[in-house]
Amino acid sequence: MNETSIQCLICIGSIIAILYAYFRHSFNYWKNMGVSQLNPTFPFGDMADVIFRKKNMGDKIKEIYDRMKGEKYVGLYFFSRKAFLPLDPVLIKHILSKDFHHFYDRGIYYDEENDPLSAHLFSIAGPKWKHLRSKLTPAYSPNKLKFMFTTILDCGHQMTDLLKVMADKDSTIEIKEILARYTTDVIGSCAFGLECNSMKNPEAEFRLMGKRAFTQTVGDVLKMVIIRSFPRLAKLFNFGVFSSPVTNFFQRVVRETIEYRENNNITRKDFLHLLIQLKNNVNIDTDNINKKQASDGTSLTVEEAAAQAFIFFLAGFETTSTTISFAMFEIASNQEIQEKVREEMNNVLKKYHEDVSYDMLMDLPYLDTVISETLRKYPPAPVFLRKCTKTYRVPDSDVWIEKDLSVLIPAYGLHRDPEYFPEPDKFDPDRFNEENKTKIWDYSYIPFGDGPRACLGMRFSMIQIKIALILTLKEFNITLSKKTILPLQMETKGIILSPIGGLWFNFNHIKQ
Description:
Its cofactor is heme. It is found in: Endoplasmic reticulum membrane; Microsome membrane. It is a peripheral membrane protein. By secondary structure, the chain is an alpha+beta fold. It is built from 19 helices and 11 strands. The chain has helices spanning 3-26, 29-33, 48-51, 57-67, 89-98, 126-136, 142-169, 176-192, 205-213, 218-229, 231-236, 244-264, 271-279, 302-333, 335-351, 358-361, 365-377, 411-415, 458-475, and strands at residues 73-78, 81-86, 172-174, 282-283, 292-293, 384-387, 392-393, 400-401, 406-409, 476-480, 504-509. α7 packs parallel to α19, α12 (244-264) packs across α14 (302-333) and α14 (302-333) packs across α17.
């Protein structure tokens, strides 16, 4: 070995030693603060299992939640980055609601200049978020949802028509892809004004781009590691959160649809119409369609409108279809619950002259409890983020959360905690009936988040879920297929709970 090679090895060894010393020093941060922590390992901190896809984030944080139960909070490390994990619902209430002004940011990377699709309501913060939230809230009012109801119902009928054809050929069906196509068609129509037809054509471009948005290649994973750990470097290299084909597709669809509507004076009562009004600096009146010039002088660009339509799609189609599939799993596994849901549904349909309507959906209290219990066992976002925007002293302690630190909210851990929900693995809708729901510990049940940044699309999602369940149970008796792998084990990729091997059901026609 020549002298140059030896010098290179010494240099590399010195760099590794310096990095190791830096990480070991960083891994003492929470201990020095007097906060309980785990045993972080170089260089991954506490997240090696997640990075190497041995566990998904929801399962990992729940594992930590269960292990550290009894503590009010825990300190974590993502590589050398520090994160705060509150375990106490009282403290979580402070973070999400009472002391929201310290935690109004989600801490999600976005780059308005180089990756405008990433600058959506879910990721942005500060005055711009507050203004946009107030502008978009009317899109989810009961009046606006009633206008969209027929569109959602039509998509639901297309889904059940497909299930009938499939069940005639083979009664055993994997449901997740069917439901993903249903929610794709719903949101494609309501948010983009497009007839996606993915129920008839699973290779429709809208469906393929939706799949790609939720598929992570090895390159995507490496890019996200850089984005999360070194955001300045990501911005320098113009790294986008989503792949170029996805970004280009959604921007093109919104731009072309807006141009077509404006050039042809077309008005539809959907989410995109609201975005067009905001682009043209028009206030939204939730009770009628009268236009009034906005007083604040602000408006959306086409790129900003595309970002808001995209998050409507991204936040809605995968989480909603997954919730429906888990609800079907529990209904298929508990036939007495299925019969009770169907009996209530049939009685209410008689009351409304066999018409599935918006008002009819609001008159199904037992179905509401079934959906609530599904969201408890399988929360759409097992973990969600906040970022400390102003240094915060944890109540009744000498612990400080520094500005810019990430805070993780463990929804999955709370929902499966036997202290708050006895026999947490048991599916029991009666936890949420009128008598029992008042006994639920405050902030132990947060499937849609809480506080000012709670999920804006909750009502919209609930309508999709109810329509899918009602129309399916009206046509079929559902039982669990032997193809479903039990007990359910969740995929280790991604952040949304997804069972390995899918969910397979037997769909048997009900004689009318």
